[in-house]
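As a warm-up, study this chain.
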Amino acid sequence: MGDRVWDDFLTERDKQVFEAAGYAQPAGLGERPAVIVIDVNYHFTGDKDEPILDSIKKWPNSCGQDAWEALPHIKRLLDAARNKGVPVIYTTAAFRSDGWDRGSWDWKNARVGDWEPDAEVRQTNLDGNTINHEVAPQPQDIVIEKLKPSAFHGTPLSSFLTNFKADSVILVGTTTSGCVRASVLDAFSENYHVALAEEGCFDRSQASHAINLCDMNAKYADVVSTDSIIEYIDGLEDGLFDLPKGK
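Now compare it with the structure written out below.
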């Protein structure tokens, strides 16, 4: 991929250490992948393409323009997966209306627990946990609701991957440093081959995005281009999976 997004954030010493220690060797994907779309909902994208400092006035967790730059790449990947019949699984949050089950989420952010939609958000009538319309789930896709960062924690994701006989996962979504990273570590811990479509991941912090991609690529996942993942998907056998009927 040439220059990597994290190169500007690493010291020369860091680069030498990674090379000398043998990190970041490609692990490759398996023969039966599933695509997992992490939390690409309006809370994290905002309701329109605008600078992050404007977006977070309405959506405190928004990643602003970086989210909207990622959406076309995610859509291309999803189109390829659906064309080949590869499973597509989404995650989003689902908290009680009284917020009781938010738990530790409220400990580190002074705004989120008390956030109320402003007039502009109310006009759109958008639920922040709804997947962004640009990459909306299709009838045959699976949507998993979660309470914590990892797509695996307290959810049926592992059992669904077992049903699909998946040996690998391809992740996109947000935030790179939070829910994406947590999901990557859990997938790695369950011995799945893991890949991230670099352009399909985003974060509210550009530094956190870059450094976490670097760290995951070093130890837990292959961070590769969306184009290369689409090429891999296109090369899979047809009819590998018995997908939900989507009625």
